[in-house]
Design a protein that fits this description.
single chain; Alpha-D-Glucose-1,6-Bisphosphate, Chain A, domain 3; TATA-Binding Protein; 3 domains; eight-stranded antiparallel β-sheet; 21 strands; globular; metal-binding
Length: 501
């Protein structure tokens, strides 16, 4: 696919950089930026089932495409469904307009990654750390790049899961090649960590733009951190690294970014520490393009994340990057162990004490019939007989116990919290997304996946700093989520299949 894509451009006399071997996804947007390319294509099905094929497209600014470019490309596809005969001519791969950027880009990427890790952290903590890390590439491409990242930061050598270390399109050891699935995808990693006495597991998805992490607790049980929990830790760490490297600079021009379905923990951190926080639509294409906008204004983007274990640490790559995230998370773990004998979980609890406990639940149901999804969301929009004309959303759940304060529908463009009733964030009729804000401070979003047959839900309860009834917050949110699923999604009536674990 990559070679055929290259030939299409070469046919039009457009020079092409084509990586000669498999690379982690971040290396394509990185090359677009560094080589000043017009666009970039990454051929990958990412973490999707093995039957899927796909590719990501990056624009001239090295961020993923957004409107109008995506719509224009789609229109062009529909107008040219039959490939040109010349597009199959692979002899063009011998053209002098085709070059391999691998050595140049790999060297530059790791030089810049190393520069983003404060030097004292490398020499004082990483180089002497007794921590060891088990790593899984999930049958993908990440292993050689994460090994190189660890070498650059003088982190302890990785212990790789041998069955999952090298690329294998059959994904023979996992049902879903997606570390976002949690423990079910990390079984071999946990076995190896137990055998080798390792306390921390790191795992990339097959194209290495996402990062999962698990840590063994004092009882010997494995805790798989959610994307929101890792986002809180890495958000704090991005600020800590910036302060270490630039102790005399103010944080007043610094930004943290998260998608709208992700935890608001970074917002709480920004409010206390004097940074800015920006929320975007779901997907790194929006966070990448927002970063481009901020950087053009002379602002500093420290960190961006989405709950689906995607992290952008410093704008070296304007997309999620599982390689750099692995390096920074491991460095943080070594730093915490050396300076305060804390685990990652200990640090997360400390952050909750300082910035307020943020409790989140996120999951999904499979739905393989698009008309059923349409029916579910149409019903949600027309549940009440009273209300604003054509906007009859539910006003409460659980028999009226939890009242809804505001509704934002980014499919229709409605937002009851705005004076004119119009949503501020961009809207799209091609996907479903409704957010309910409750009077008790909880926020729940229902949305469809852009790449998989799923109806997803995201819920969060945000406590104030010093509020200690964390179990009470969890119990209330759990009850609310159960009510939302049963009353709005109606899994039995709609034949929805719940997530397996």
């Amino acid at each position: 696919f990559a070679e055929l894509s290259a030939c299409v451009f070469l046919n039009e006399n457009i020079p092409v950089w084509l990586y000669s071997r498999t690379v982690a996804t971040p290396f394509v947007p990185f090359a677009v930026l560094e080589l000043k390319c017009l666009a970039g294509i990454m051929v990958t099905a990412s973490h999707n089932p093995k039957e899927d094929n796909g590719y990501k497209v990056y624009w001239t600014n090295s961020a993923q495409i957004i409107p109008p470019h995506d719509k224009n490309i789609q229109t062009s596809i529909m107008e040219n469904l039959e490939p040109l005969e010349t597009s199959w001519n692979l002899e063009l791969l011998l053209s002098d307009k085709l070059n391999d950027p691998y050595d140049q880009m790999v060297e530059l990427y790791f030089r810049k990654l190393q520069a983003n890790v404060p030097r004292p952290f490398i020499t004082d903590y990483n180089a002497s750390s007794s921590l060891r890390f088990v790593y899984s590439a999930m049958h993908g491409v990440g292993y050689p790049f994460v090994v190189k990242a660890f070498e650059c930061a003088r982190l302890p050598a990785l212990i790789a899961v041998p069955e999952q270390r090298d690329p294998d399109p059959e994904f023979r050891t996992v049902k879903f090649p997606n570390p976002e699935e949690g423990k079910s995808s990390l079984v071999l990693s946990m076995q190896l960590a137990n055998e080798t006495g390792c306390d921390v597991i790191l795992a990339n998805d097959p194209d290495a733009d996402r990062l999962a992490c698990a840590e063994k607790d004092a009882k010997g049980e494995w805790r798989v951190f959610s994307g929101n929990e890792l986002g809180a830790l890495l958000g704090w760490w991005a600020i800590r690294c910036y302060r270490e490297q630039y102790p005399d600079r103010s944080l007043s021009d610094c930004y943290l970014i998260a998608s709208t379905v992700s935890s608001k923990m970074c917002r709480s951190i920004a409010n206390v520490d004097g940074l800015h926080f920006i929320e975007t639509l779901t997907g790194f294409k929006w966070m990448g393009n927002k970063s481009v906008e901020l950087l053009s204004q002379g602002k500093t983007v420290l960190f961006a994340f989405e709950e689906a274990i995607g992290f952008m640490f410093a704008p070296t790559v304007l997309d999620k990057d599982g390689v750099s995230a692995a390096c920074h998370l491991a460095t943080m773990a070594c730093y915490l162990r050396a300076t305060s004998n804390q685990s990652l979980a200990d640090k997360l609890n400390e952050l909750y004490d300082i910035y307020g406990f943020h409790c989140t639940f996120a999951s999904y149901h499979f739905c393989y019939e698009p008309p059923v999804i349409e029916r579910i969301f149409k019903r949600i929009r027309n549940m009440e007989t009273e209300g604003v004309e054509d906007q009859r959303y539910p006003q409460s759940i659980a028999g009226g116990r939890f009242k809804i304060a505001d509704v934002r529908d980014l499919t229709t463009g409605y937002d009851s919290s705005q004076p004119d009733g119009r949503a501020v964030l961009p809207t799209s009729k091609s996907s479903q997304m409704i957010t309910f804000s409750f009077e008790n401070g909880a926020v729940v979003t229902l949305r469809t996946s852009g790449t998989e047959p799923k109806v997803k839900y995201y819920a969060e309860m945000c406590a104030q700093p010093g509020q200690r009834d964390w179990n009470g917050s969890k119990a209330t949110l759990r009850e609310m989520v159960d009510s939302i699923v049963e009353e709005l999604l109606q899994p039995k009536e709609n034949n929805l299949t719940p997530r397996s674990d």
